[in-house]
Amino acid sequence: PLGYTVKCDSMFKVITVPENALAACTVYGESPSDVMVVMTSVRFSTTQDVVLSFSLDVPTETPDPNVFQVTVKTASNSTADSNTQIPGMKIPPKRLQSKIRWMVQDFESLSWLQAWADAALDSGAVAQGLSQTLAVSNTSVSVYSAVAIASDNAHSRRLASAPDGHLEVDFSIALRLDPLEPDSYEQLYPKFMENDFPTHMTSNMLAAVTDLGLFPISLQDCVVAELSLVLPPNATEPSLYWASSIAETVTEVTLGLVFNNYTEDIQAILLVLPPTFNHKLRTLADFRVLRQGGLDDLPVAQEEGSWIDTRSSDMIRIHIAESARINAGGYAFQLPVFIPYEVPPENIWFLCLCTSRACNSPTHSSVVTAFALPGFNIGERHPHTIVVSATMKRSCFTDGIVVLGIVWLYLVTSAGG
Questions:
Q1: How, if at all, do strands 315-319 and 308-309 pair?
Q2: How far is CA 186 from the centre of its chain?
Q3: Residues contacting residue 14 through CB under 8 Å, at least 6 positions apart
Q4: 372, 407 Cβ separation under 8 angstroms
Q5: Which pLDDT tens digit goes with each residue over 401-416?
Q6: d(CA 221, CA 30)
Q7: What is the pLDDT of residues 85-121, one digit of tens each?
Q8: 316: Cα within 13 Å, side-chain hemisphere
Q9: Were both Cys, which of 91, 145, 225, 345 would link to 99 (CB 3.0–4.6 Å)?
């Protein structure tokens, strides 16, 4: 897609090709978004799989259209096959975040008001009211919660017969870079600062409630909290280190990354092993969180007891503490892994950042960053190691490679010469 730069640098790796085949990567044409891989001595007799990895420079904003293309050509330069609609991941934008609070009167009970708030959230009434007020698309609006709160005068006589309360909505607006776009910071911030914004917001919220068939309630005294600019996760330098690569043995594997700025968006970090590789985690002591530079530990959800999900033998999900901030710095995860007799064609390790704890694959909707790391072969030694400062134990770590992502392409080609 426009804005990406694909590189034929040291991160280009041939992961799976037919036996004795060779592959070389070169820049194709004048566009930084195109590369060409020339394969020689190709005979699809033992495998039909081709898996290659490249490093990517990722743009600051999701391009439109956001699709990758892979074209397979013959030796005579004729097109044998082409996939022009490989969807790319959405790039997390900066966001403007705030809260809106209304006074609500004459409702049945606080539990009733919370049920109404849940219905308003699920039906999209809150998002619709915000998008109408700010003149932005519904897709730019994220509503995190709608909460019913008891009024401060909880012991008044009025509360006993006709309770007072508040409805509080926590939301954010995804920002575009173009200052002329309606959902840019330059256009949105003045709208929030207008004196009549609370009035317009209340009117549009009530209109959305009516449009969507919700029970009408009284919303009064709208108060908008101070705006805050929220930075998206910015992670680079994905790394994979293995202590040994002897088949049918258990070794220590370390996956790491570097956060270039703080983030409060991440609720889980997902590690996905290649097929036929299995982790050997039995207790929390088998899993280590390491720190590379920086001053702060990773804020895992230790107060919840077991903060890693190891139920799947090829996947580990690390839970981050609720509303915690991950500060800038390098972090790594070390675990025992069983190496199979032979590596699979899809020899890819994934390290994913998730905005929910429900993520269970690199393609889950809550995954905002998915690093695809080329795996190692049986008998392959790791080329570079350095010592990493750790919170629990010393370990080894790969040299940092400044990339913003790694793409892996998995092609299935019909058999032939």
A1: antiparallel
A2: 26
A3: 23, 52
A4: yes
A5: 322 333 344 333 223 3
A6: 58
A7: 888 888 889 999 999 999 998 888 999 999 999 999 9
A8: 29
A9: 225
